[in-house]
Request: fold
Amino acid sequence: MMEKKGKVVLAYSGGLDTSVAVCWLMERGYDVVTLTADVGQSVNLEEKKAKSLQTGAVAAYVMDLKKQFVQEFVWPALKANGMYQGTYPLSSALSRPLISQQLAWVAKNEGAVAVAHGCTGKGQDQVRFEVAIGALNPELEVLAPVRDWHFSREAEIDYAKDHGIEVGASVQSPYSIDENLWGRAIECGALEDPWNECPEDAFKISVSQEVAPDKPQNVEITFEKGIPVALDGVSMDGVSLILKLREIAGAHGVGRIDMLEDRLVGFKSREVYECPSAITLIAAHRALETMTLSKEVLAEKKRLEASFADLAYTGYWFSPLKEAIDAFVDKTQENVNGTVRVKLFKGMATVTGLKSLSSVYNHDLATYSEEDAFDHSAAVGFIKVWGLPLKTWKQAHKQDPEKNESISVSC
Amino acid sequence: MMEKKGKVVLAYSGGLDTSVAVCWLMERGYDVVTLTADVGQSVNLEEKKAKSLQTGAVAAYVMDLKKQFVQEFVWPALKANGMYQGTYPLSSALSRPLISQQLAWVAKNEGAVAVAHGCTGKGQDQVRFEVAIGALNPELEVLAPVRDWHFSREAEIDYAKDHGIEVGASVQSPYSIDENLWGRAIECGALEDPWNECPEDAFKISVSQEVAPDKPQNVEITFEKGIPVALDGVSMDGVSLILKLREIAGAHGVGRIDMLEDRLVGFKSREVYECPSAITLIAAHRALETMTLSKEVLAEKKRLEASFADLAYTGYWFSPLKEAIDAFVDKTQENVNGTVRVKLFKGMATVTGLKSLSSVYNHDLATYSEEDAFDHSAAVGFIKVWGLPLKTWKQAHKQDPEKNESISVSC
Amino acid sequence: MMEKKGKVVLAYSGGLDTSVAVCWLMERGYDVVTLTADVGQSVNLEEKKAKSLQTGAVAAYVMDLKKQFVQEFVWPALKANGMYQGTYPLSSALSRPLISQQLAWVAKNEGAVAVAHGCTGKGQDQVRFEVAIGALNPELEVLAPVRDWHFSREAEIDYAKDHGIEVGASVQSPYSIDENLWGRAIECGALEDPWNECPEDAFKISVSQEVAPDKPQNVEITFEKGIPVALDGVSMDGVSLILKLREIAGAHGVGRIDMLEDRLVGFKSREVYECPSAITLIAAHRALETMTLSKEVLAEKKRLEASFADLAYTGYWFSPLKEAIDAFVDKTQENVNGTVRVKLFKGMATVTGLKSLSSVYNHDLATYSEEDAFDHSAAVGFIKVWGLPLKTWKQAHKQDPEKNESISVSC
Amino acid sequence: MMEKKGKVVLAYSGGLDTSVAVCWLMERGYDVVTLTADVGQSVNLEEKKAKSLQTGAVAAYVMDLKKQFVQEFVWPALKANGMYQGTYPLSSALSRPLISQQLAWVAKNEGAVAVAHGCTGKGQDQVRFEVAIGALNPELEVLAPVRDWHFSREAEIDYAKDHGIEVGASVQSPYSIDENLWGRAIECGALEDPWNECPEDAFKISVSQEVAPDKPQNVEITFEKGIPVALDGVSMDGVSLILKLREIAGAHGVGRIDMLEDRLVGFKSREVYECPSAITLIAAHRALETMTLSKEVLAEKKRLEASFADLAYTGYWFSPLKEAIDAFVDKTQENVNGTVRVKLFKGMATVTGLKSLSSVYNHDLATYSEEDAFDHSAAVGFIKVWGLPLKTWKQAHKQDPEKNESISVSC
Reply:
């Protein structure tokens, strides 16, 4: 008789891999508790619960985490204009620490000895789950059945059939997908040659530039302390605003990303994403920051934004550096208030207008009109001092006069 | 009788300001030598020469600097993905040190005691001219008649008429323009309210998204050591390639930029640019770098790119830091070889394909197919070590378990 | 009769320059109010007050600012290990914004139209005063009589005698000095040749290595949240702790600094400082941070420390970037608790012991003894993944085998 | 009969671990070739060769690598002021890539199938060897017998005795040592409590402050392009200069380092080093840079120096980022020429004089004497522009006047 090992809490999507994982873990002596979280991926939680219990789980938790996802993960990322390598808005990366947190909580609630995820051995998500759980509860063991079992796709399907697991149509899909409120990630074989353009059927929440409407649509997004609070003047909670904007911007083809990305585990990978809300909101937020933050803050913040994105991407969400960067960012966001007009059209989200009561743009300094308040004569002294180090440098390092032979001169 | 002060070499565009400056300098005792440079702004050099001499200059130099501009200024900027504040491709900023260099050369050739430019006291260009000339020849005095003369627009026009200077239609234009191969800069009164969208008639070398063709156009750009050498497989010199691409990309509405920019002289200013070639080439170049540079190089280079842009923007082109950054960048560019397919459509330049013999993308590591060469089991040890510092941190700083009250749980 | 211009508040040290300034400002129509602040430079406030009134001031404020200086300026700088160019602990730089703040406050209290300082036109302090006051009250005019009056030293002394100002012995001193709790700054002619060693009589609060005692002295400094709270186990307020440590460390020759420093106003300057407390406390604080902060925090904080020092040095104390960096730093300091043993001996402050309840040093991981808790086998997978990008890079860029000719090989 | 596996090249110090490794590898079917390198650790190469062959090696290479070590590893590190975490001069870290290079060369020369090192599973050196060899020859297997064999110290000694390996006195030493020209690294049990001061008998190449001579000694070090070429005016090759300076500075107690260091493999470790030459030369080099490099170069170089040190520390010596940083650094070093006077006394290396024909220190700008060439009036305009953004910021964000209650005011 098999040794009983206690309970394991499995992050359960209800797809083939995690369904097979339920059985595979049971066969190894675990009582399996599943956790299915709604982070905006249009999941039917009750269906998943039923399927889990039917597959053999001793308990099936389902949770609507959309609100917590937005407030504790998406908004901090937006305030930091979080883009890994300047390009990827971190959508999947942001959901992993949240799900890890809830896995740890359920494990505690159920007295489980381990948690489990359905990731393979070459992705980023295994790192994010395992590092986050190690941070949240160092005592918990983390299992990775999909990484361990060495099934081929065919063997996995046979195993599923043998164990009465329904094998859905999705196993035929050439695409591997992860989705949440902040974006949708797509991987597939055809993408593995970077010269190939991404096939159109890979996308779901955005249309192509070609079929996008022939008329632009303007939206006005209002921010308070760096967070969007209203769309076209209508106040909205974060979940609603992101979903609404996803629909509008996606319909104009906005938010597609196609990149070669450096994975933490040591190689480059072609990745395609659809992130209509993220792309639109980050563009608007960045523009509003140019109006409300000083030059020095903009420059230093940009460096910290890169660190923020690296931390989120590599599983270091619950880390002291992340907390310290949040403190810096939050201080800057106290002044990021105002409204941004964004034109959505044929794949582009273009900022066409900015207004803010916290603006440090000063018309009277900038203007070339008669209201000009800038002291032009101060510029003379300024330039003299500004250029002095360079003048001194060149006096110390005399050079031959520039030769001019390749230039045609007429005089 | 007026004291003779010697020769001054004036950077001369032939517009109202620099024409008036010729007379104004003559009245102050200088013999004026003008220098008119072609940096791709479609200037008629012979016309300018005639106008200069007619206005009273003792000599009028005209120079075709397009080739030198591309090779010594634009290509280094492209290799560094030079964008001030991440947005402005530095077009005007790049031409100033070149013109300064030629002013210094003509001054030497003519035995002049000073050089002069036509900038006002609140722009960036005065800084760039004066700092560059101070670096190139610390003995030369730099005059800035427009900054000094305190004419109103009306007084300036009256002065011009009195001195027989033709006042062209351009003085009625609401726009202040600077143009070269790498882009076109536009300032005007209507832009001084950042909530106003930029008027369509401000643009000249790009169409609007709305009137751009309904069919996309692909171009293939081939790079060698970070520099574009062929368009659609046809080898071209740099000037031709930039001009050709400006035409194609501009016709698809690519390259418009509208931003609030932090000037060195201490205030924010609304700036609008059209840079079809710059935007397309930088997008292609950056994408090719993701395929041919390592993760660490990409991250460090990004930081140095910001420094590069600041140096170019603030007049520090001929500086030792700029030279050291060039050395770093040039080392990295040895491997930036390959071809990039860019789709130009309705204002967007989208990279849709990459290929390179210097690629460090490794299909066999990235693939999820059977050719997978990645050692999945190594990930286990990797994650253990990667997460160890965070685990240790959290063991030292025990926290209460996460409360979960706001989340709806069903199980 | 002279036009009355209103009141001006003058930062008044009571030395020759500021005494002359009182008269000079009076002659220009101002009623002069003086402000003399004690920031730890052993000033006799009542004497200064008497001298000011005698010289003609209409009112003379004297303030003990030592406590505020430590809490609002020195401690934030210590938490940020504030050292300009990695070397200068910012002593004078920290007092300027505080004095500016009080100048602005007195100006408001007195209804003054201007404030004034006694700096020349080439130092840093003029920048710090004027930028800080511009930030604190943009309406206040700032006067700089010493910068304006163009007296030679002799003319100034004659003027003083003519106006009944006592010319003290200090005017014969070859040294220009600024002093406060955090350190003492020395400038003089002999230092202007960087090959000259600084003369011994330039120093006042530290002895030379040569005459320092032949026996070392240990001190134990206890920190809470990055701030020193006890010396050798005795709790102390900040002012007392700094003064006590200044005495002890100075007596062992600790704290002398001799450097070429880049001034904001565009040139390099030889500067000598004595900062016994600053050097000892920063060494101790940094060491404690290696025990209580993570690797990533240490690295990112080091970059921000450089920015912090630049801001303090260049007059940007009251700036939004400074506030955001403070927020980052304060977050990190929550864990900087513990005790540091420092050996003071012959000019050196050497950390010889560290202990902390917030330590993230983990003996069981670090030990080579049998208690070793580190999983050695995880290292194998870690190294494999860690080295993978470089292996891939080199596979893509095959090189010839290393030639070995210059090495003597015997086998 | 045992399967023959081919040749393995073992990095062989001749101590207990690597001697046992010879036998252990032979037992697993390898023909062992040893490589013993002289990198300045006072090794008797011929003795090591004899011992290796006697233990059973089929061939024993011995190499004097001192010159190559200095030129290709130490000098680049000095030019980059290479200090890991600002403190450790990378001594052991620099020798590993060199030894790896020679292991790869011998492996090629001998047709070996693998190389081997004697590191454990928790140090840095395993990473450096394995990553470097993976970069230099991705086909070579790397063995780590000490990491694999799981001997206790006692079992290892028994095994050694059984195999006729001489067990020297060093196995009784409480210290684990690595030494080369650039420094000596010490680890031991007593150091594992960071509150313990390091025992005096741990040190070998430096005396304590207490017993150092009571008279200081000045040395003058001359640099060309960032590299020391003469000591006290006497030209010397690099190896001789470092050895000579090690002796002089060590005799004055200079070069001891005691730190908590963050290892790449995820934990903090107490490390003690003696690096008399490194500490003295880096201090001199940094000081000379303050005289010969511009402010901007100094600041940017400091950031890159941290990256350089991280790369060297973590095994990324042969990496593209390291090459690009070298290019930056080499460009800056073209001007780092001159002579530095360093006073060595009681543990301190203090720079007391600097002179350079490449100096950008300008006496006429810095002086307060009558030769003053600085334009004081330019400062007025400069400060006005410099402070403008802050003034604008504060105008946009009006604050209540500063309260002043806690300050004692008398007037």
Observations:
- Chain A is about 40% helix and 20% strand.
- Residues 364-394 of chain A form one domain.
- The interface with chain C takes residues 262, 265-267, 293-294, 296-297, 300-301, 303-304, 307, 311, 316, 319-321, 323-332, 335, 385-389, 392 of chain A (CB under 8 Å).
- Chain A has three domains: 6-172, 196-293+335-361, 364-394.
